[in-house]
Amino acid sequence: MALDELKSAIPDYAKDLRLNLGSVIGNSPLPAQQLWGTVLACAIASRSPRVLAELEPEAKANLSAEAYTAAKSAAAIMAMNNVFYRTRHLLSDPEYGNLRAGLRMNVIGNPGVEKTDFELWSLAVSAINGCGQCLDSHEQVLRKAGVERETIQEAVKVASVLQAVGVTIDAEERLSA
């Protein structure tokens, strides 16, 4: 199982990550599509080749073709939006907020899966990418759709653990090279 391979690559000094990885994936209360879409989108967003290589096959096996594509789409569109909206928010000139974005984001309106699933994946990727404006936006959409805070927090836990695992494993691989 790829999850076991990934866990075994985590060094002992980061054993909490090993335990958390098993928990957020192996004991997740999220439905399979929400979980594996979050895993795939976050594995992509983590920028860790090892995390993506280990988790993508299992995500693909647990997702429909439409959900698999939508999770990748969430990672892609948030890679753009998180930079754009985070920058707009961080600039001291508030007038940037009044300018038209002029960026295509059609997939957000028609992701090919349940809107709440796509929003959850987008929120998780936004957590990795550190965009407060996108986090707020996706959280509000999810809450208005009746998604519980606990569900939102589960997606953020997946994001945080996968990001930490990727950083740790990639650093160890570079340090031992």
From TrEMBL:
InterPro entries: AhpD (IPR004674), AhpD-like (IPR029032), AhpD_core (IPR004675), CMD-like (IPR003779). Disulfide bonds join 131-134. It comes from the Bacteria. Its EC number is 1.11.1.28. The active site is at residues 131, 134. Keywords: Antioxidant, Disulfide bond, Oxidoreductase, Peroxidase, Redox-active center. Residues 94-168 form the Carboxymuconolactone decarboxylase-like domain. PANTHER family: ALKYL HYDROPEROXIDE REDUCTASE AHPD. NCBIfam families: ahpD, ahpD_dom. This is Alkyl hydroperoxide reductase AhpD. It comes from Streptomyces evansiae.
